[in-house]
Amino acid sequence: MRSVRGLLDHYALFVGLRYSFSRKRNRFTSLIALMSMLGMVIGVASLITVLSVMNGFSAELRHRILSLVPHGYVESNGPGISDWRQLAADLKQAPAVLAVSPYISDKVIFGGRHLLRGGVLTAIDPQSEAEVSRMPESIILGSLDELTETPFSVVLGASLARVLGVGLGDRLEVTIPRLTVSPLGLFPRSKRLVVVALFEVGAEPDSYQAYVSLRTGQKLFGGGDRVAGLQLKTKDLFSAPQTLNALASTLPAGLSVRDWSQTQGSLFRAVKMEKIMVSLLLLSVVAVAAFNIVSTLVMSVAEKRRDIAVLRTMGARAGGVMAIFVAHGLGLAGVGIALGCAVGVLLASYIAEVTRFFEQLLGVKLFDPSVYFISELPSQLQWSDVVTVVFASFLLSLIATLYPAWRAAHIAPAEVLRYE
Question: What is the pLDDT of residues 375-389, one digit of tens each?
């Protein structure tokens, strides 16, 4: 008897999978099982695809926005840094610091042909700027070297220039939040600058950022030879917060340190939180599909009552019967998860081509670069996401099978066989 029980328990997986894929099942039960698997396919595929698209958006933001943002800043808590050249030389001696560049930055008002627009004006050293950011690579018209060669010149973001209605060679009025004392009273400082170049990174800075040379900035903002701070580039972007925290303890009094996670971190935290929320919402689709298996198993238990009774009278234990129906449910779920995983990986890998196909089919542009800063859906498939989705789907499916399997294990064989 023990050997028979052991044999039955050993074949629980085999019997359960046979129930899952048998062609002799009731047609309605088969239809419900098919719908459950289809729901699992859709849920898993959509979850993997959306997570990959969210990863792609995060990577695009990181590449575009951080291309203009240095890894960190050393700033003065007072009116500025007067001995910045010596400080820059000292910072370059730090093992983790690759480059240093001075800057002055403040909010200003740009006056175009027909309107005014607020923005940020940053004074940089064109030669050293290329070492701390990729801004020089983003120039689409003109040359960054013109800032040094042409006095009182400016480089504008492409979107800002378009809004102001100015182009290369045009002049625009810049009003700076500094007061000029004259016999007639106090007036804000303003200056006409000539546009010598346009840059474009395909992100929000295109619509508000402008650059002038360091010498021009010192004349516009005042303060003599002082600078507001120094921009730093470290060996690794993501370890920059730890590197700069360690560097802060070596700086003279009156200086503070900021890293990119403090200036831009809220944006990336928002993207990460959005990814988590979208994942939870789409996981509910998988949960609905998983719990559709409950109805399939309940109907299957009712259909297999005689088989259960025969197995119990042959010596099968309740745990063995329960294992049969757990295997039955996981077999259905496993097929849906496998197909959904395959479809999701394919969609995530070729989402740009799929989007392009529908654009050509419908004759519309789904993503206008002038509106969305992108021309197609970015996607970055991460296998860790795929593993997480598969694990969560199997876990939900396992939970869904427990109650019907428990009911099957507690069917009384005597009551079933009495009427056979």
Answer: 667 888 888 889 988
Q: How far apart are CA 25 and CA 18, in angstroms?
A: 11
User: Do residues 61 and 374 lie in contact, with contact meaning Cβ atoms separated by under 8 Å?
Assistant: no
Helix 305-313 vs helix 318-349: crossing angle, to nearest 10: 130
Whole-number Å distance between alpha carbons of 373 and 144: 23
Average pLDDT, integer, range 312-332: 77
- Residue 364 tokens, joined: 């519309």
- Cα separation, 108 vs 113, in Å, equals 17
Q: Measure the CA–CA gap between 146 and 24, rounded to whole angstroms.
A: 80
Q: Output helix, strand, coil percentages for the chain, rounded to the nearest 5.
A: 60, 20, 20
Q: What phi, psi does 47 have (nearest 5°)?
A: -65, -45
Task: Report the distance separating Cα 388 and Cα 404, nearest Å.
Answer: 26
- CB-facing half-sphere around the CA of 330: CA atoms within 13 A: 21
How many helices (H) does the chain have, and how many strands (E)?
17, 10
Q: Would you say how long the chain is, in residues?
A: 420
Give the closest residue to 41 by CA, choosing from 282, 284, 286, 349: 286
Identify the pLDDT of residue 332: 83
Q: Distances in Å between the alpha carbon of 110 and those of 20, 104, 245? A: 69, 17, 36
Six token digits for residue 34: 């098919």
340 SS3 class = helix
**How far apart are alpha carbons 97 and 243 in whole angstroms?**
9
pTM of the model: 0.64
Give the tens place of pLDDT for each residue, 43-88: 889 888 888 888 887 777 776 666 667 888 888 887 888 888 888 8
139 phi/psi in degrees, rounded to 5: -65, 125
To which residue do tokens 């995060």 refer?
Answer: 58
Residue 314 backbone dihedrals phi, psi, to 5 degrees: -80, -5
Tell me what the mean pLDDT of segment 144-171 comes to: 89
Cβ atoms within 10 Å of 4's Cβ, excluding its own: 11
Residue-level pLDDT at 260 = 78
- How far the first Cα of the chain sits from its last, in Å, is 25
Q: Are 404 and 325 in contact (CB under 8 A)?
A: yes
